[in-house]
Design a protein that fits this description.
The chain is α+β, with helices and mostly antiparallel strands. The protein has six helices and three strands, in the order ααβααββαα. The longest helix has 13 residues. The radius of gyration is 14 Å and the shape is globular.
């Protein structure tokens, strides 16, 4: 596998964005799949507008992709982003977020989004 160097400015911007606990948690939640805003609201116990602001920053930087399905928007990690290798390495170092999603599923809150 060929390694490519990331531009310093891109790396700095990505690290700055992931330096926020909420955004880092969001990225951890979508590390292995997708989530919609309502799921982030439930897991993080934050308002929808607040979550949307964090997602906007991640989307504007190109770190996440969004896909609209009906009234819901689902977010995934943009693995094509130049800093994706850095993001993946960071996400490997943080606690797994799967348990939080499992708890949502058990409470029936993942189903409400149609996922």
């Amino acid at each position: 596998m060929e390694k490519t160097k990331v531009e310093l400015e891109n790396a700095a911007q990505t690290l700055k964005l992931l330096g926020d606990r909420t955004r880092l948690t969001i990225m951890g939640l979508i590390k292995d799949g997708e989530c919609c805003v309502c799921e982030f609201v439930e897991v993080l116990q934050m308002s929808q507008p607040s979550i949307s602001q964090h997602l906007r920053k991640l989307r504007d930087a190109g770190l996440v992709k969004e896909q609209r399905r009906g009234q819901w928007i689902f977010y995934t990690i943009n693995t094509a982003h130049p800093t994706s290798p850095i993001v993946q390495q960071i996400l490997e170092q943080i606690p797994d977020q799967k348990e939080k999603l499992r708890a949502l599923e058990e409470a029936g809150l993942r189903i409400q989004c149609g996922s």
